[in-house]
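Supplementary Methods. Inverse-folding protocol.

Structures were first reduced to a discrete structure-token string of length 107. This string, shown here, constituted the complete conditioning input.
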């Protein structure tokens, strides 16, 4: 299962209007630590299908969204609920940490 590709154009619809929690991975092709998170984000997309939306924003292709949320370092994960940022994770972190934060929003 692939994460949803989130862009400046579809951000409002896919993230802000979602009735489920949304995890957004801000990344770039040239970012080494981002590559470490990619398989984790792909696993989460499958594991949380139907429960949460798992997506990725390429900061080079979508500078508007990255700027809107003040993304200065990548990888950065923002977790949204009800269209608002409720949690943030900066850097490559273990899957367990991401799962813990996501699960907290599902209860």
């Amino acid at each position: 299962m692939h994460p949803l590709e989130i862009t400046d154009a579809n951000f409002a619809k896919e993230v802000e209007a979602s009735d489920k929690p949304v995890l957004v991975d801000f990344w770039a092709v040239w970012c080494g630590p981002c590559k470490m998170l990619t398989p984790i984000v792909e696993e989460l997309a499958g594991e949380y299908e139907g429960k949460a939306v798992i997506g990725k924003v390429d900061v080079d292709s979508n500078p508007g969204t990255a700027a809107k949320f003040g993304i200065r370092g990548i990888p950065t994960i923002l977790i949204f609920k009800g269209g608002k940022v409720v949690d943030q994770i900066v850097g490559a972190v273990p899957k367990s940490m991401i799962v813990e934060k996501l699960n907290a929003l599902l209860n």
